[in-house]
Amino acid sequence: MAPEPVIDPRIPRAIAGDRGAAESLVLELMPRVRNLVRYLVRGDSEVDDLAQEALIAVLKGLSGFRGEGSLKSWADKVVVRETLGRIKRRRQERSRFEIRTELHPVSDARADVYLARRAAAQALDILPDEQREAIVLHHALELSIPEVAELLGASPDTIKSRIRLGMQKLRLPETV
Amino acid sequence: MSWLPLDDQPGPAVARTAAQERALAQKIVARAYPQKRWLWAAAAILGTLGLAGGATAAWQRWQGAPPPAELPKPHQVSKSKRLTFVLEPPPKVVETPRPKKPKTVAPAVAPPPVDVRDLLAEANQLRKTKQWAAAAQKYRQVVELSDAASARISVAELALNHLQDPAEARAMIAPLLKSNGPLLPRALLLQAQAAAAQKDWPTARDAAQTLLTQHRSTPEARTAERLLESWR
Q: Touching check for B1 and chain A: CB below 8 Å?
């Protein structure tokens, strides 16, 4: 018999309206959610707004979490759905290439890692949205092709093609 | 490691300080759990209306006046009826004895008051018998009722040392870090330990360093010194 899933005690408390538990969950999830949102969108200007909306969606959807898998993996999918939905709605009004590099103090040991991650996200900024989204879901979230296809509402073959084309562009940025 | 690493470490999103993250988290929770102000407003209006109605009825009883008759609606009254009504002699006034003043009635059901001291005693007992989660829950109730700093510290200690929840520990002590109360050194030490548990080394070092420089004579400062040594 499969063991009963262990649910973080903060989750039922947050569902019941305990703001302290909700805040504690948000604080724990926030760095990862902000990073995921940054991978998904161009530039930094919208990251905090989108992360905020995504975390609200996570809190409101907590009752749908069944404890199968980690809370973070479940939250990742909620964040992807919420963020992609909002990106689609905002696409018309969004500036396409806004890359601002605001460096905030981080310890020296982590500075290189931080810069490398920001460079990776900025490299993605050259890709069309569809290729970018497929690559982030497959390579950052490590979802399978069928899972990416389901989340993006496209066929697995289309997703494979988007990933292949996107990867080619990333390897040959001078041709873009 | 993936070429697009995704975890809790800084990057690719612009790094934020712990204080900025806390502020954002509070904003998110406030939006996700809006205060039901309209409920309070509705209750206040109903209460006012109820009081006004009660006062009017009491006044009428006091005056011995009969309750106001419901006036016929214009479209229901025929001309002949209206004429009869005008020609009728005025009704006799019957003297009625003045009733006694109505007594003030206490609210029907009031919840029994929760004594914070009882809750604290229960929480302490639960902690003594190592029922960590139940003890933490009682201390949380104390925090909700009285926002006692000592209860915040207790929840934070239980969360950090027994419930593997450094994030809750940090959330619990966050308000204490802004105060200059007697429990500030304890809160700073817990902040350092909780941040270290989350591998948030800049915050952990910052809290330990603040303890060393600003509260050097406290026992917490000595622990902070040992922690800083071990983190090198």
A: no
How open is the CA angle B215-B220-B224, to the nearest 5 degrees? Answer: 95
| Residue A85 parent element (H or E) | helix A71-90
In angstroms, what separates the C-alpha of A120 from chain B's closest C-alpha? 7
Q: One digit per residue, pLDDT tens: chain A, 176 residues?
A: 555 666 788 998 888 888 999 999 999 999 999 999 999 998 888 899 999 999 999 999 998 888 878 899 999 999 999 999 988 877 655 444 444 434 344 444 466 778 888 888 888 988 999 999 999 999 999 999 999 999 899 999 999 999 999 998 887 443 32
Q: Taken in order B175, B176, B178, B180, is the CA torsion positive or negative?
A: positive
Decide: pTM greater than 0.80: no
Q: Do B171 and A24 touch (CB under 8 A)?
A: yes
Q: Give me the amino acid identity at B110.
A: A
DSSP code, position A139: I
B133/A24 Cβ within 8 A: no
Question: Does residue B89 have a cis bond before it (omega within 30 degrees)?
Answer: no
Instruction: Give B26→chain A minimum CA distance, Å.
Output: 6
Q: Which of A13, A26, A80 to mutate to test the interface with B (most CBs of B within 10 A)?
A: A26
Determine the Cα–Cα distance for residues A84 and A129; give it in Å rounded to an integer: 10
Determine contact: B172 vs chain A, CB below 8 A: yes
Q: Looking at residue A137, what is its pLDDT?
A: 94
Please check whether residue B204 is in contact with residue B192, taking contact to mean a CB–CB distance below 8 angstroms.
yes
Instruction: State the pLDDT at residue B131.
Output: 87
Does residue A49 contact residue A119 with C-beta atoms inside 8 Å? no
CB pairs under 8 A between A and B: 139
Using DSSP, state whether A168 is helix, strand or coil.
Answer: helix
* Cα of B212 to nearest chain A Cα, Å: 20
CB contact residues (below 8 A), chain B span 47-76, against chain A = none
Inter-chain touch B12–A38, beta carbons under 8 Å: yes
Asked if B32 is an interface residue toward chain A (Cβ–Cβ < 8 A), one would say yes
In sequence order, what are the residues at sequence separation of 6 or more whose Cβ sits closer than 8 angstroms to the Cβ of residue B18?
A: B170, B195, B200, B203
Which candidate, A129, A128, A142, A48, places its Cα nearest to that of A87?
A129
